[in-house]
Amino acid sequence: MKLRLFAALCSMVLGVLPAAAAEPFRYALDIEAPAEIKSLLLQYLDVVRLRASERMSAEQLSRLVDATPDEATRLLETEGYFAPQITLTYRQDKAMPHVLLTVVPGKPVRVGKVQFVVSGAIADNQPLREQVQAQILAAWTLPQGDIFKQKEWDEVKKRSLSLLQEKGYAAASIASSEARIDPAAQSAELQLELDSGAAYRFGSLNINGLKHYPESLVRDQATFVPGDSYRRSDLVDMQNRLHDLPHFSLVVMDPELSPEPPYEASVRIDVQEAPRHKVTTGLGYSTNTGIKSELGYRFLNLANRGWISESKLRLEQFEQAAETSVTLPRLGAGYEHRASMGYLRSDVQNLLSHTWRAGISRQHEDFHLTRIWSLEYLAEQRELEDGTQENPRSLALKFQWLRRDVDDIRNPRRGNLLQLVAGGAHEKLLSDASFLHLYGRGVRYWPMGPQGVLIARAEMGQTFANEEADVPSDWLFRAGGAGSVRGYDYQSLGVESGGSIVPGRVLATASIEYQIPVYKDWRAAVFVDHGSAAGRWADWHGKTGAGVGARWVSPVGVLGLDLARAIEDRKWRLHVALGLAF
Q1: pLDDT by residue (tens digit) across 234-284?
Q2: How confident is the model at residue 4 (pLDDT cuts 50, 70, 90)?
């Protein structure tokens, strides 16, 4: 009885235990083909993509094998090969099934005769028609003799239609298109006819979704008025400018074309507003200025005009700052205007300074280029270690020119950054001294190997003035620290005076750094920096720092940790930096 009961219990237990998981079905696959063709097949063939599928079985593989020759033929046709020789061998080896695909693409089909015409209402404007046809043919990327590729043919048609629509023919369409392929002659005859439709002009702007912000905030971003010739690029530019405003989290723009005269393209704009109030906080650490905390507040609808009001309080170990500003949003012409005032207390290298500032600026920014004109009044109180006090003030006009041409603004590996600054003041215009300030800074990125990058940086500046004592520190130079000459303390390279390091009138620094990937988003770096600041070029003596570092490519930028040795001082220092060069 007990034995029968034990056997029953064992059967119940074994019945609820999970069965051993079946081994997944696997097979070997080889493709013999020219490198370019092999890459295409490995990317798109189902027999490759579904290889690791858990649903794969011998029956499923058999179906894939049967379909592969036709699938490979269609893929090769998109690259201009219409008479390939495809051989597929499927055998059952002892270990696993083996699939061998051999492809001889043959001679490619090349573009022969090309026929292109623009018809429709544009025929009434013969000069414009000829201009459009010339622009389309100039952008035609499948000339006679080139290998015919379906993807390129589709791009030619799309690009040609866009060029016509850009000339005011918003309803333009492809009347007919054909690629006549003759595999025997290895030739493709291309025919494309575009129908311009009617010429359209901009109509009204219909704005939806506004609750708190004024309509003028949206309308001011338009560079066109009702009655202007319709251009699709004008809508794209306006949508990009609206996206750049902090007032909106979503912007959708659609032209609504009237089917009858007068042919107008009214524009429907749907927006989703962002919150008007925003509070930001921050906590961090920098080897330059120590422990950092920050508090900010932004309001996006000052005076019900969509003006942006911002206030910031920044507390660091060696610097403390407060600033408030009002920014008028960018207009359709691309200019943004700003008024600000602020205070900065700095205690670095035995130089204690208090700086009060107030100014206005005008900024223009496009995809790569930023230009800023500003007029700013500065009043500074400097106290040196020996008790000497200096109280320079200036009313200075400044122009800044910045160009960013990199492949990735967060993690650049190719391209360059360039900054140029020119400014000055006159002693008879609320300034203690006349001076001219010139400064330039550049960074160049070169990719090295699969993931490495070589970075070169250089900066140079000079302030033409009789004495440093009569010029505010913002218009002078010090060097040292992260982003400058590593191995030396922050702003420790300058003019020695009264037991302090005060800023000088000349600056020159340079750096070379090589980064190589070591693990995922981490890189190792080696670098050499050289440079200094001084009162005049005759007194300039460059200092050298060299070392190694680690880089983490974070979601907000590149975080750097460097251990550098000051060659002249024979000391090691640690530096932490976040972000791009500027």
Answers
A1: 999 999 999 999 999 999 999 999 999 999 999 999 999 999 999 999 888
A2: low
Determine the length of the chain. 582
The CATH number of whichever domain residue 44 belongs to comes to 3.10.20.310
Strands (E), 235-331: 248-257, 264-273, 277-286, 290-302, 307-316, 319-328
Residues 424 and 491 in one domain: yes
Residue in 177, 278, 277, 267 with CA at minimum distance from that of residue 226: 267
- What is the rounded distance in angstroms from the CA atom of residue 5 to the CA atom of residue 543? 89
Cβ within 8 Å of residue 515, ≥6 positions away: 452, 453, 454, 455, 523, 524, 525, 551
The token pair at 379 is: 């009043």
Residue 522 corresponds to which amino acid?
W
| Residue 56, domain extent | 28-104
Q: Rounded to the nearest 5°, which phi and psi values hold at 263?
A: -75, 100
Instruction: Say whether both 471 and 556 belong to one domain.
Output: yes
449 and 571 share a domain? yes
Q: What is the pLDDT of residues 5-39, one digit of tens each?
A: 444 544 544 444 444 445 678 888 999 999 989 99
Angle value at C-alpha 305, between 299 and 308, nearest 5 degrees: 30
